[in-house]
């Protein structure tokens, strides 16, 4: 992530690059479970809000980016990382969704 960020925050050019990164992620088949907030009620995951204190997903990152909520590259990257971290915190190692989170983490690191 080689971007020269000024103190005033992300420029339109930065945001355009980050939107391109998100678009790459969205094309990956393993992204499906990470596109929208976890609907824990519908899934019957009633302990989800007690375990995951700050839910994050791709649609929320996109909204935050378009609303200029990210003042630094790190805040953007932290939210992307939080998507995978939350999944791996809540789900068991070797479960399919845990492995999908690991795959998406690797895809993002290479993007």
UniProtKB/TrEMBL annotation:
UniProt keyword RNA-binding, yes or no = no
Describe the location of the Bromo domain by residue ranges: 26-98
Return the InterPro entries for the record: Bromodomain, Bromodomain-like_sf
| Keyword field contains rRNA-binding | no
Keywords from the UniProt entry: Bromodomain
Query: Do you know which CDD domains this protein is assigned to?
Result: Bromodomain (cd04369)
Its protein name is Bromo domain-containing protein
């Amino acid at each position: 992530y080689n971007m020269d960020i000024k103190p005033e925050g992300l420029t339109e050019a930065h945001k355009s690059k980050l939107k391109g990164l998100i678009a790459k992620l969205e094309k990956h088949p393993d992204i499906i479970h990470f596109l929208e907030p976890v609907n824990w009620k519908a899934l019957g995951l009633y302990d989800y809000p007690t375990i995951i204190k700050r839910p994050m997903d791709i649609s929320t990152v996109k909204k935050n980016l378009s609303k200029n909520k990210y003042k630094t590259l790190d805040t953007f990257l932290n939210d992307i990382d939080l998507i995978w971290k939350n999944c791996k915190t809540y789900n068991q190692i070797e479960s399919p969704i845990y492995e999908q989170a690991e795959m998406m983490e690797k895809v993002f690191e290479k993007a």
